């Protein structure tokens, strides 16, 4: 079953009680992505193994449990199911059904101001989330640039932007991350500046 999940959603981190339980899992508002266009469901895993599921005006309280191998058992309308929990970043939770080739995908909306009610809302959430992540990564990284067959750097994007603004270099110079070996990605300074 795990092969199916990891082919579908790569780079998942297994649930770690020490890292995830208190800070990323308990008392967070998890919106179920599966079937959101038909019926929005919000899951809140609370202390004392209480699971609160909200749908429109209906709130159901059920139970959940975790064993020492990080296997979760959840009481649902369909009975008791056993799942393995994974995180794709700290605010995307995946519960993989251990008995079937299916999983549930959740987004943590605790600190997100807009409502997630549709696939379009989810796409907007993910686009904004990864835009911020890319901005942060680009902002902190250093890059080399090549101009007239000579390499310069490394520089942070702010420094490169300032050089472009002052006319010292062209925005069309190719850049590479300090960890890359060559310029084969064909990324230009202007591509970095757009992401800031």
Q: Could you provide a short overview of the structure?
A:
The protein has 196 residues and is α+β, with helices and mostly antiparallel strands.
What is the CA-based Rg, rounded?
22 Å
Strand order of the largest sheet: 2-3-4-5-6-7-8-9
User: What share of residues are in beta strands?
Assistant: 35-45%
Task: Estimate the global geometry from the Cα principal axes.
Answer: elongated
What is the mean pLDDT? 85
Low-confidence stretches: none
Element order: H for helix, E for strand: HEHEEEEEEEEHEEHEEH
Largest sheet: 8 strands, antiparallel, barrel
Q: Give the helix tally.
A: 5
Helix content: 25-40%
Coarse structural class: alpha+beta
The beta-strand count equals 13
Span of the ends, CA to CA: 40 Å
Structural account:
It is a single chain. By secondary structure, this protein is α+β, with helices and mostly antiparallel strands. It is 28% helix and 36% strand. The protein has 5 helices and 13 strands. The chain has helices spanning 2-8, 17-25, 119-140, 157-165, 189-195, and strands at residues 13-14, 30-32, 42-46, 50-55, 58-66, 71-76, 79-87, 92-97, 103-108, 142-147, 150-156, 174-177, 187-188. The protein has an 8-stranded antiparallel barrel with strand order 2-3-4-5-6-7-8-9. A 4-stranded antiparallel β-sheet has the order 11-10-12-13. Helix 4 (157-165) packs across helix 5.
List the helices and strands and how they pair.
Blueprint: H1 2-8, E1 13-14, H2 17-25, E2 30-32, E3 42-46, E4 50-55, E5 58-66, E6 71-76, E7 79-87, E8 92-97, E9 103-108, H3 119-140, E10 142-147, E11 150-156, H4 157-165, E12 174-177, E13 187-188, H5 189-195
Antiparallel strand pairs: 1-7, 2-3, 2-9, 3-4, 4-5, 5-6, 6-7, 7-8, 8-9, 10-11, 10-12, 12-13
Helix pairs in contact: 4-5
